[in-house]
Amino acid sequence: MKIVILDGYTANPGDLSWDGLKEYGELIVYPRTKKEDVVSRAKDAEIVLTNKVVLDAEVLIQLPKLKYIGVLATGYNVVDIKKAKELGILVTNIPAYSTDSVAQATFALILNMTNRVAHYANKNRLGRWSDNDDFCYWDTPLRELAGKTLGIVGLGSIGWKVAHLALDFGMDVFAYTSKNAADLPDGIQKTTLEGLFSVSDILTLHCPLTEETYELINKNTLAKMKDGTILINTGRGPLVNEADVAEALQTGKLLYYGADVMCQEPPSKDNPLLKQKNAFITPHIAWATEEARTRLIDTCVENVKSFVEGQPINVVNR
Ligand SMILES: NC(=O)c1ccc[n+]([C@@H]2O[C@H](COP(=O)([O-])OP(=O)(O)OC[C@H]3O[C@@H](n4cnc5c(N)ncnc54)[C@H](O)[C@@H]3O)[C@@H](O)[C@H]2O)c1
Ligand SMILES: O=C(O)[C@H](O)CO
């Protein structure tokens, strides 16, 4: 059995090991693969593993030996899962490996906006505090989270964890979710999408990228939000229309945009959000703690083992 990893570098830049996979076949690990090389690299493989290399219908039909795609991520929007199913290719993902890390990163973005730690540390390096007349100074709005309303789109593994952290901060928590209101823990209130837009001081996106959620945040939905809403996106870039978000940041409709993901990754240098003073963008690293990447690789090996043994787990296209 030939196993090909198309873009192994980000999950394992050298500090972890793919050796667990060697038990299940001949393993070839490419650090990264350009679009034009995908078919030639994957064509003899029964098992292909990808994090962000796109396997769309056009690619899949050129891979007749392929039996299994293991997505090295929770979000599996890079694979055309319907076409894969039609072709008899099983697709799995890695659920919940980075829940704690992504929830932490979500609050890192939020707390950066309320407390601006890097801003003050940088100014103080330049002598701003030393030159001050009083024992303290601030030149950004300082905000307390307690009593503010957090709106969550998608109450899965990450949304759930974020909700609990928010409750611990004393926030009021609302969620747009298909779960029954009665099944939600105390303190998390179910609402409609419209309801969520109108109550949230901070709105955070934790749903997958699908046809339904593509550009969920756009000119029209932004208009339904409170003036000065904070928007957080650690889900996927295309959950928002970036041009509309950039405009909302300029008009003040959005106070801040905090994102770990962008529509194009890496983004082009002229993406307006990168230069926007009230946008704080991290380079898709919420998942990338050593702890989470270790769990990712462990689950990847479990997924491949289960597939090879005929009892596949974490299948997303049954
Ligand atoms: N930035 C990162 O490093 C990083 C890391 C992990 C995951 N992610 C992204 O976060 C997403 C969520 O991860 P998770 O582990 O919580 O996944 P999950 O599958 O546990 O939860 C997703 C939730 O979204 C809900 N959902 C689906 N469609 C929806 C819709 N239209 N409206 C509202 N809710 C909807 C699902 O029912 C589910 O409860 C992933 O799909 C991925 O895109 C990003
Ligand atoms: O979905 C995920 O797991 C992260 O975005 C990393 O790819």
UniProtKB/TrEMBL annotation:
InterPro entries on file: D-iso_2-hydroxyacid_DH_PdxB, D-isomer_2_OHA_DH_cat_dom, D-isomer_DH_CS, D-isomer_DH_CS1, D-isomer_DH_NAD-bd, NAD(P)-bd_dom_sf
EC number(s) per entry: 1.1.1.29
Stored Gene3D superfamilies: NAD(P)-binding Rossmann-like Domain
Keywords assigned: NAD, Oxidoreductase
Class of the enzyme per the UniProt entry, highest EC level: oxidoreductase
GO terms assigned for molecular function: hydroxypyruvate reductase (NADH) activity; NAD binding
Pfam families: 2-Hacid_dh (PF00389), 2-Hacid_dh_C (PF02826)
Keyword NAD recorded: yes
Keyword hit for Cytoplasm: no
Family: Belongs to the D-isomer specific 2-hydroxyacid dehydrogenase family.
Protein name (record): Glycerate dehydrogenase
Organism encoding this protein: Segatella baroniae B14
